[in-house]
Amino acid sequence: MALTINGLSKTYPNGVQALKNLSLTIGNNMFGLLGPNGAGKSTLMRTVATLQDPDAGSITLDGIDVLKQKNEVRKVLGYLPQEFGVYPKMSAADMLLHLAVLKGIASAGERKEMVDALLQQTNLWEARKKSLSTYSGGMKQRFGIAQALLANPKLIIVDEPTAGLDPAERNRFLNLLSSIGRDVTVILSTHIVDDVRELCPRMAIIASGQVLQEGSPNDALAALQGKIWSKVVKSDDELKAIETQMNVISTHLVSGLHEIRVYSESNPGDGFRCVDSGLEDVYFLNLSRHTLN
Amino acid sequence: MNLFWEFFTFELKFRAKSISTYAYFLLWFLFSFFCIASESFGPVGFSNGKVLLNGPYANTLDFTAATFFGTIVIAAIFGTSILRDFQRDTYQMIFTKPISKFGYLGGRWAGSFVTTVFVFSGLIFGTWLGTFAPWADHVRIAPNHFWWYAQPFLSICVTQIFFFGSVYFVVAALSRKIFVVYVQGVLFFMLYLMGLTIYSATRSLERFWSGIFDPAGFLLLSDITRYWTVAERNTLLYSWSAHSGQGVFLYNRLLWLSVAVLSLVIGWVLFPMSVEALTAKSQGRRAAKAKLQDEIESRAKRSLVAAVLPRIHQVFGPVTGWMQFASLTVMRTRMLLREIPFWALAALAIAFSISNGYFAGHLGEQNVWPVTFLMVQAVEGTATLFFYIVAGLYAAELIWRERDVRIDGIVDALPMSETIDWLSKFATIMVVEALLLLIPLVCGVVMQASSGYYHFELLQYLKELYLVTYPQIAMFALLAMFVQTIVSNKFIGHAIVIGIYLLNPILYNVGWQNTLYLIGWTPTYTYSDMNGYGHFVPILFWSIAYWLAVTGILAVISIALTRRGSDDSWAARSKMARGRLPKLVPSLALFVIAAIGCGIWYYYNGHVLNEYLDAKARRGIQADYERNFKKYENLAQPKVLAVDSRVDIDPAHRSFAGSATYTLQNKTAAPIPEIHLTDQHESVSNVSFDRGFRKVSCAARNSYCIYALDQPLEPGAVVKMTFNVGHQSRGFRDGNELPEFAYNGTFFDSDYFPYIGYNRGVELDDPRRRREEKLGPLEEMASRGDAKQSLYNLFVQDSDWIHFHTVVSTSADQTAIAPGYLKKEWTENGRRYFEYDMGAQQIADFFAYISGRYDVKRENYKGVNVEVYYTPAHQFDVNDMIDASKRGLDYYQQNFSPYQFAQYRIIEFPRYRGFAQSFPNTIPYSEDIGFIERVEKKKDIDFTYFVTAHELGHQWWGHQLIGANVEGSNMMSETLAEYSALMVMEKKYGKDQMRRFLRHEVDTYLRGRGGETRREPPLVQVQREPYVWYYKGGLVMYTLADYIGEDKVNLALHNFLEKYRYANAENTETQPYPDTRELVASLREQTPPELQYLITDGFESIVLYDNKALTAVVTPTADGKFKVTLTVQARKVKADGNGDESPMGMNDYIDVGVFSGTKDDEKQLYLKREKFTQEKQTFEIIVDEMPTRAGIDPYNKLIDRVSDDNTIDVT
């Protein structure tokens, strides 16, 4: 499986340019898509998921023209939108069985087997007969995951899947994804850097509809090794001073004090110490560079 | 108070910014504007043509209707004002602030009240502006009076707003659910309509409590204005006085205003002013939900290692398409069936079906067997509205649901075609509707069984419900789905769909009646037991097919434009549509071809094969006839002496052809050079005379042709005119099918034969329509004694008495009937022939042809063959008819004169027309009015018996005695037939029954006065006033017989008949026809001097009594008897033709009576006719038993608008 996105552009009627000549090649396995809110992640995902058309560009999935042969894509697609609702007064099991029919699983036995497995896997088995409208946010999200995985999809698009999941469920979901992701293409969009670090052999950082960086997280980390420096600053004045002088990537609060991380080829001196780079640094560095440009 | 002001002004500001406020205002503005500006629009459009459009009655009526239909608007404004805080969750902010309950509730309420009053003030402005519309009928618009607007607005609109608004407000405040607010509006609306149906089915004449307890005002209106004449309708407003109209209006207002105040108090007491209390329920629900989740989450967790998901196989092909369709439809149907609003609608439909089904056996004044067509009509009737609501509502729900619940992201990315998804939505609606249609079916059968009727025609139910109604619902659903696909908002879609639904009848009323452009329209049809759907089948089939095809096109467009994905812009949708189109083109083409094909075929039939004439065009033809040919009205013409015809009826083609010869004689003193013919139905051709002639001219549609004889017809000379008659039904018409021609039950009369000279009967008589055609007022009938018109008879002016002979044929399975004795009957070329001959017996020139498949019941009674020709399913009343005929023959022969024929035949015809008509010895009788009657209880009126006796009476009054062609003559036919029938009926059912019957007759008369479009004449001067000659005439004659004796009245009639029967039968025109002066003289001859006033009042004037029992006190006497001291009031007034009244002196004899028993079930203890010379009189009456009721004119022998207060309880 390989998804090739070429020169994708999209401008909304209100003038927002969501995608700017964006190109990406995504092979089998998990692909992480990192970006801040409004970066164009969801637009990109919806476009790949056949829900909207770009103004320009092309997408092909193993020879299928995604923009033209939408139905061919839909047959192999598992899609979890960023936000979704459910029909009231309908149980998870019924809904999954119904969706299984719609996804072309013709055998009733297979449908049952798959739905049961997914309900178990997403820990909804106990609540499977409860109406979906009574589900909590996390349960609903798990239901969303279950429906995306019906019918052994070859292209899985999950938009912010871990939002609203508690840590245990998040781990279980990530395990599940990675166990499936070996043979199929999974695009995972998120703004949680850890999701990508833990799961994705490849990733892209996008902002304002453009790819800022593409590659494997390890390569990106290696490139920053020894160039990230950290310091705990004492006062806001000091923070302001450093901000004007250096390339501050991020700040964290530690016991009420600001710990800042800066990018520097060499030791910026004065209390800074060299720290291990994290994927977050890659992300923030890209964003801040992008903002400067 | 400060807070009150705060909330009040906030509410007003909020409403002032809201577009809906102005939309509602505009709605009422336009509604009332068109009530004035377009005559056929709005409630007043249906009242009579002399009522002022901006007069007090019109405004009262329009405002009542507007506030009733506006109850949903009231609900919307009042309900949402309180709900706003809960819908938008601002209550948390508001109720945590220190506000007073009065300030909050009072402010919101008062703001809503003012807003609603403003909205409804659109009525005033619309009406007012409408009076300036240049195209309006200004004859019916009076100068504007401020009080005519203000009083109805204050006493109806404002008080109704106060009442409904307060109730809705309180319900909303206490329930805090938007759903409840709207449902209560709808619920009230429906329950009220149901109540009205039930009330009207009881046929109660009660006019006090029904008015007081009416919350919406229609019964109130009817109770108060029921007998208002035109003059009163144009001057009187509802009176707030307790003395006017028994104070019904005042008490009604007081009752409902106090209900409103009470509900406000309840609301104020019960409304909790704290967030906790207001949201207690939803908090409880939230807590329960959290608990459930905790429970689930706390179960033992499984391994974090992901299990391997099973491998499945996807199959995509036609079978998958079907499976998807089935799964979607099942899921959607299930969801729909789980909705509470759906079940609420279904429950209402059931309630309606049952309550209407219960009254299916009540037809006007009559009880009938609930035969299937009546039952279907009853149970389906209003319930159909619910089926449309369900279709419209769920079309929107299904189109929008995925978006509404925001599951579209998942669903739109499924490997499924839009067509399958869309078809499943449509299928869901149709599955549910199919289930809903079982409601009328089951309710109908149940209600038939419960009223003891077991002939269940399930096929008829299925045809009506599933072949006629179901496709129409389908069209509506398709239309609604299309609209919802196009619009960007569900509620705009609803508004458009409702608009289209309402638009059709409005367009139809104002004269746009073409089925091809009235969306989803099918022409009206009538089911008949004789004929089934008969000739309506092709009309229904093709109009339904046409509209299904048209809505099918909309369906395909809807599929093409279906929203899918996240981009809703029209650019994106039209791009998608282009992508989908290739696959949709075949079905689109199919529907387009079908629509065009059906449309062309429909057009060909409705507009090419048959001339398409809407109501206005038909009136135009009548007007043209009058304009062009009235100048010939007084031209001397010969009269018909004999008719000899040969008529071949072809029922299968709803046609007939024939030829006839008229023998015409010049009865005037001058030669006649030209013969003029009127041909109303374009049915006459090949006219020729037995001497030299030429055709001078023939008007369009053959309506008037002039033939010149080479040699003028000398006085006394005779000429034979031969001609062909015929009517050919071609294809089908777009509405207005001729009722005369049916596969079973053909019935047409001499109107299809030529009429000699100008026929005044063709003239338009409605003053409104005449104004529209700029015709000037209708010519009055000649006054009594007019020398010329006394030589013409009332019914047909082109003949006096004729000899009649005919040979009529029909198809092999039918019987053909015409006046005359059957001389010969034979079969030839597979057709049945009948020769009828009247022989030497002359008849009025008034004959008919009837053909149908009949069972016959015959009985020879004292030399007269009494026969009833009926359709086999209708055996119910055949014996009743024969019995009435026999009793009638006895009574009339004994009291009036011998019967001139040796046969009396009653023949059933289809219910496309609903009357019975008396031709010589031949009575076509509609299946609707006599053949399904059911008389069970002692109090039931045997209408069949009455009508049969009435029509038999016409064999004397109308076929022996005919009046001159002058005013008044019609009462000598109708009033005397009515009197004859009353007497025959009284012999069988007794006086009590007749009193009950006459009470309804008088009610009909008094209501008829209010509908008079010209002016009311006294009985002896009637021209075109059926309500006078039937209902007033019957009562006046019956009362006269009661006062002077039945034998005296009959003697007078006998003498009169002996002298004038077969008037003007001589060919020399020496004995003119009688008029009502001779009848009155004959009656006066038998009336004692002191009662002569009865004839003056009853026959020659319009006199109304106002009799009333004032007090009745009983005291036991020493000898164990009872003395009643009774004070009564007797008053009478004389009215003129417009209803203006002036008091009259009193010198009358009126019954005074004392009774035991309860009201309406009294036993007479004492009855004496007392002379009244003053208004109030007191009587002391001794009776043997303990009396309970007493009063004046207790049997309502005199015409009194308030008949209820004639007797009172004795105290």
Describe this structure as you would to a colleague.
Chain A is α/β, with parallel strands linked by helices. Chain A has two domains: 3-221, P-loop containing nucleotide triphosphate hydrolases (Rossmann fold); 226-275, no CATH class. Helix content of chain A is 36%, strand content 28%. Chain A is built from ten helices and 14 strands. In chain A, a hairpin with a 2-residue loop joins strand 4 (56-61) and strand 5. The mean pLDDT of chain A is 87. Chain B is an alpha+beta fold. Chain B has five domains: 2-282, no CATH class; 321-609, no CATH class; 634-757 and 796-953, tricorn interacting facor f3 domain (Immunoglobulin-like), CATH 2.60.40; 969-1101, Neutral Protease, domain 2; 1104-1209, Immunoglobulin-like (Sandwich). Chain B has 35 helices and 31 strands. In chain B, strands 3, 4, 6, 9, 12, 14, 15 and 16 form an eight-stranded mixed beta sheet that branches. In chain B, helix 17 (340-358) runs parallel beside helix 22 (438-450) and helix 30 packs antiparallel against helix 31 (969-1010). The radius of gyration of chain B is 35 Å and the shape is globular. The two termini of chain B are 53 Å apart. The mean pLDDT of chain B is 89. Chains A and B meet through helix 2, strand 6, helix 3, helix 4 and helix 5 of A and helix 15 and helix 16 of B.
